Amino acid sequence: MPLTQFAIINAKPSEKDYKLADGAGLHLLVQRNGSKLWRFRYKFCGRENMLTFGPFPATSLSSARTKRDEARALLASGMNPSVKRKLDKIASVTAARTVRRCGSRPPGSHGSERHRRNHHEEEQVDASEALHSDRETTDRRYFGC
Known about the structure:
The protein is α+β, with helices and mostly antiparallel strands. The chain is 52% helix and 21% strand. Strands 1-2-3-4 form a four-stranded antiparallel beta sheet. Strand 3 and strand 4 (47-56) form a beta hairpin. The radius of gyration is 22 Å and the shape is elongated. The model is unreliable at 122-128 (pLDDT under 50).
């Protein structure tokens, strides 16, 4: 039976942590300290894994169900949702580093305009090439069983 908003709000902490199942691998972990966390359990390549979607009420019931459905779609296409999340995080950090590196120096300290333009274009290209080569290696190692 799926969870209801009423059941989640009325879930009180006890001596031990416990789970309230919603279905299709999604459950709410109610901890002793009163916090409530959304988790999704799944199997990939014969191994059990878990994703955390965030705390309740910051992550609503409908939002947790949507995230679960997205993760299940990734599983159906042969991708590990946990590894996909890590790759997305690496990509965003790499993109932020490239932008921060280019904008970290004050204007005029780069030398000539031509040098600045060439230098920054090379940095951005090198970072994106490195990201794609790392992603291909990681894809082979983690997305294939």
